[in-house]
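Apologies for my clumsy wording, but are you able to produce some protein sequence, whichever is easiest, and the tokens describing how it folds?
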Amino acid sequence: MNWNGRSLLEKFLPSVVEHSSQARIYVADNASEDDSVSYVKQNFPTVRIIQNPVNGGYAQGYNLALAQLDEDLLILLNSDVKVTPNWLSSIPRFFERYPTLAAAQPKILDYNHPERFEYAGAAGGYIDRLGYPFCRGRIFSTLEKDEGQYDQPVPIFWASGACLMIRNKVFKEVGGFDEDYFAHQEEIDLCWRLFNKGYEVWALPQSVVYHLGGGTLDHQHPRKTFFNFRNSLFSLVKNVPGAQVILLIFSRLILDGIAGIMFVFQ
């Protein structure tokens, strides 16, 4: 996915092309106003271009682009991710072996600090009783050093949208991303819906990528903060069953309000 990201494409697309010979590579452009599309056409003739008519964010952008694809297995890759040799070699095998496996993610390390996990997904996502997401290798803003502690494939609750591997038919079966989210946490909602339908999501750490993070919006950008808090509440309303969601939302509004006060002082 790309939006006005010529500099990111220059930096990160070469590694994808070099190390993904067994895959078809697409750049889905979200109505960029820079020369991203012409740059890709001129420099990467093997990369296919999908041009979306509007910038509908991550959610609508991928829905529009993926509706045009019929490959069995899709990997949604942020434009600020550097992939590594053999990052794809073990992925198809896992999906063939486990028919209930619907989605997965690789080990995601920090591009600028490669010895550490990266914020957006790390070694696989979970969610606590109040609906707050966290990861193996990352709790709030604390990032662990990668010392091989999460090198076994395991079931997780959600896979990072920075590098999301998913079966095409399952993505379309559940209706793709919820476009009301625009960006941020739509992958958590998607995985939650997969979980509710009996599918599994796994972390596959044999595959390793490096994520810059904040390529479109910085972690502390107020718009990103807004989307994260709002979309987290969306996911609770949509996916928590029965009357318990009322108490949960009430508790979250109190805690989110306290977090808001903390942001003012920070």
